[in-house]
Amino acid sequence: MANIQQIAKRAGVSVATVSRVLNNSNSVSSKTRSKVEEAIQELKYAPSMLGRNLRNSESRLLLVLLPSISNPFYSEIINGIQNTAIANDYHILLCETDSKPERENIYFNMVKNKLADGVISMDPTINMKKLNELYEEHPIILCSEYEEGGCIPYVTVDSELAAYQAVKHLIKLGNERIALITSDEKFLYARQRRAGYERALEEFGLPVRENLIYHTKGLDFQNGVHAMRVLLQEDNKPTAVFAVSDTLAIGALKVINMESTTPIAVVGFDNISFSSMTNPTLTTVSQPMYNMGCHAVEMLISSIKGVKVENIVLEHELIIRESTMI
Amino acid sequence: MANIQQIAKRAGVSVATVSRVLNNSNSVSSKTRSKVEEAIQELKYAPSMLGRNLRNSESRLLLVLLPSISNPFYSEIINGIQNTAIANDYHILLCETDSKPERENIYFNMVKNKLADGVISMDPTINMKKLNELYEEHPIILCSEYEEGGCIPYVTVDSELAAYQAVKHLIKLGNERIALITSDEKFLYARQRRAGYERALEEFGLPVRENLIYHTKGLDFQNGVHAMRVLLQEDNKPTAVFAVSDTLAIGALKVINMESTTPIAVVGFDNISFSSMTNPTLTTVSQPMYNMGCHAVEMLISSIKGVKVENIVLEHELIIRESTMI
DNA sequence: CTGAAAGCGCTAACAA
DNA sequence: TTGTTAGCGCTTTCAG
What we know:
Two copies of one chain form a homodimer.
Chain A: H1 4-11, H2 15-22, H3 30-42, H4 49-56, E1 61-66, H5 72-87, E2 91-96, H6 101-112, E3 118-121, H7 128-135, E4 140-143, E5 154-157, H8 159-172, E6 178-182, H9 188-203, E7 213-215, H10 221-233, E8 240-243, H11 246-259, E9 265-270, E10 283-286, H12 289-305, E11 312-314, E12 317-319
Parallel strand pairs in A: 1-2, 1-3, 3-4, 4-5, 5-11, 6-7, 6-8, 8-9, 9-10
Antiparallel strand pairs in A: 10-12
The first copy, chain A, binds a DNA duplex (16 and 16 nucleotides) through α2 and α4.
């Protein structure tokens, strides 16, 4: 691979001039410019980002932290992130933490090492203490999961309200025993969605029954399957279920199809693309995932430029499908 | 962020010594070593990858090209890639081409620019001519989709054989009108799976009917939905369907559930995690996706080290579930 | 409009 | 065992 020196020699100019052509500096005569461009063509030259970045101390790389790439919820957000980043001449370094703390350190170091200019974290399991430390020196944006009262800017949806509306929908349909399938309450979204669930029940004078609330160990389909099996053991079975993610809801739906003698309404959360392929199709809360990704990148780039950014709460929408039309 | 000079000054040694400590060179006295380590602690120093990489002309970053992150097939492979890469002190730069040629160029340049040490391509839509050009100068591994008779090493499965076995399974079940939902035949995997489909039919003396072969424009659920709708228009409806991906098969299943008056058996390809959540659960060809990712990285790292690597064809398996038990 | 030269942070060859 | 120093490829003053 040719370097800038060779181009300079070939074009009979100095490296400074080549650099100027590369960076579209206007103080280059068109004759010189074309000589240089010709040399670039001939030697198939592409400037080394390493050299450039070292000099500019920027990498134009953004780190995206997420617990697992397999969850379709993240895929959609990443689509938005990726497109917006590229449009702004940035690239994405995708970092799966697998919820393992040792992984985090590697990634935090990459930022400290200037290998990335900023971070978007979508990982609810992240060590917020360390992240806040990092934030003192580097731009960070939280996407979806955030820290209440924290100082790192975020883009998210109103989980409490969305959950409230979802459960209210179930209540209006005549359900009085509504189960909640949720994950560990160390996660903010889980606490918020539970709060919304309880608010709806209380508003309609329905009791909050602990035996109808199941905490899963993860967000895979299988966790939803297991949760629903347990809930079906109850003497007084639920007539409806609200799950804090579509993946859990889909697992629940599967069990209901196979094992329940009575119909049970189900509402999920996220509106992943699978959710319209299930049988019955899944009623769910649609999060603007793609948009959330776009906003996160825009906020991060602003932060990198030194512009202060405001938190953003995006609109959600309850998508009513067959799983609540029974 | 402190740099190596400041550590040297603080520890009262030269930058070379600091570098030696950083790189675990053994020619450092333990006294000096601890002085340096102390300074590193105090100043919270982390070496700049940019400086290091520029000097070593390596980035320890690997590029992964894929058409779309939303397809669960890729997520699983990426899990394998990610884990193996990290175990070898490499990181992954995930690049979604969205099947857009202009995107490719950006990524190819990143490699030329030394921003990445090698490439794993899983993108069937990639410009093979350009990729082969790049291969002259940089390590590349093809994962899943490859080039027949090409020179770039690959890891894949035997698509033709797998398809043959899948269709044979349908025939043994008594099906004589078996439809094929496949994608564009510019993709090798599509041609191979079609070949397997035809071989099975021919072996059992069944005709290959063009009107039972549907070519989709993509691999989304919706493409499967559309394909199945068209196939159901046939006067002589198929009694079984083989789809070249689970996503297509799941779309087809949805239509069969909703619109078909007669049962139709379905076989997919990939064994994505959602395939056991459908109703009925999906019979499919299981590809060792995680393993494929691991192998791809191992091969790539070998290539980077200058070791010649052999192509790998991994084992597949037909997973029989409810969609062929009707 | 163009060139010379310094320097970004690091490693490694060479000296001591 | 340690220090000095020359670059890796680039951008950006400062001169001209």
